[in-house]
Amino acid sequence: MRMDIHSRKNAPARHGIDRAGHCDTCQRPSAESRTAQADANGLSGTRGSDHRTDSDFAVAALEAIRWITTVPHDAVKATVRDGWLMLEGSVNGWPQKQAAEQAVRNVAGIKGVANLIMIAPKVTPAQLQARIASALGQNASPEARQIQAEIIGSRVVLRGQVRHPREKETAERAAWTSAGVTEVESDLRLANPNGAVQDTADNACVKNRN
């Protein structure tokens, strides 16, 4: 769910807190706000207390994310307005983005979550090609050893030839599971042992997480 928070007039001030605990619109949580934080996380047995502020919700959201060990420190910022939570920042891969969202959805009282976390690629074409070669193993065909990988933002394009469908699937899987990749476009062609390329409808495919 995506929110356009700038389109609303006379909206209350945003309360933003980063993973380091810095906040430009609120003070350090008092004992009362820490109690509210426990309420928001469901630790005190109460849910949906009316006295909690957007700042309390933001604190609770970041506390929930802090327990996700796969999300890098200081990678995510939580901003809350009128009970609606927005996540921003940058992580290495789709699993981290989803983990952060799942964590904050457990915060009681939140009306909804807009996950605007960006995925920043952390792999180079050379590293990706090495990863594919490792996945294929020593029994890879000569054609498969020549697979080329191009990285465009968070999208990977694979080009070349393979001798067996399983080599095609292995190369695509290796690209798909690389850090920062959200889409894989495969232009890998199946080749006969004599080097002729098979013209089949299954050769090209695009997979993404949208």
Structure in words:
- The structure is a single chain.
- Helices cover 28% and strands 23% of the residues.
- By secondary structure, it is of the alpha/beta class.
- The chain has 2 domains: 115 residues, no CATH class; 84 residues, Histidine-containing Protein, Chain: A (2-Layer Sandwich).
- The strands form 2 sheets. Strands 1, 2, 3, 4 and 5 form a 5-stranded mixed β-sheet that branches. A 4-stranded mixed β-sheet has the order 6-7-8-9.
- Helix 5 links the parallel strand 7 and strand 8.
- Helix 2 packs across helix 3 and helix 4 crosses helix 5.
- The chain is rod-shaped, with a radius of gyration of 23 Å.
- The N terminus is likely disordered.
Number of domains: 2
Q: Compute the number of strand runs.
A: 9
Mean pLDDT: 75
**Share of helix among residues?**
25-40%
> From the helix content, strand content and strand pairing, which structural class follows?
alpha/beta
The main β sheet shows up as: 5 strands, mixed
Distance between the termini: 13 Å
